[in-house]
Design goal:
The protein contains four helices and six strands. It is α+β, with helices and mostly antiparallel strands. A hairpin with a 2-residue loop joins strand 2 and strand 3. Helix 1 crosses helix 2.
Length: about 140
């Protein structure tokens, strides 16, 4: 296992990549992180994104070390945690909601965007931001 700190300096983004980031948002970032693991046929990594002043940082836990890429500054070390029974861990989680159609999983918001093409980008961003809280609230009410 490997633990990597991967930094994307927004000021150094080529104009084409900047345009892609503006139009695709998090989807573009996810694709770019995937490019660091092109040898993997299936996703064998988890990542967390954090925003800084003028940069984005990704903390990645992966089965394989990420490959060098001109977009990112990559720092990687081997990850061999020594956990004992009773250890307590703290983590944060951002899950990507999906929908299953015809036996395949699709990103919920991309699916919504395709099914409701008149939906404005700003409305989609609001839905993405509000969905986790609404979904959690509904699950709590169902209990």
């Amino acid at each position: 296992m490997y633990y990597s700190r991967i930094t994307l300096d927004l000021a150094k983004l080529p104009p084409g990549r900047l345009k892609e980031l503006i139009t695709k948002g998090s989807y573009a970032l996810h694709q770019w992180v995937w490019l660091l693991f092109t040898d993997d046929e299936t996703r064998k990594f988890l990542f967390r994104e954090e925003e800084g002043q003028g940069f984005l940082r990704f903390y990645v836990l992966s089965e394989n070390a990420p490959t060098k890429n001109d977009l990112f500054q990559i720092e990687t070390k081997e990850f061999k945690p020594k956990l004992r029974k009773g250890d307590r861990l703290i983590f944060s989680l951002r899950a990507n909601p999906t929908v299953c159609r015809k036996g395949r999983r699709y990103d919920l918001f991309m699916d919504l965007k395709k099914r409701v093409p008149q939906l404005e980008r700003q409305d989609l961003l609001i839905l993405q931001r509000e969905f986790p809280a609404v979904s959690y609230s509904r699950r709590q009410e169902a209990r």
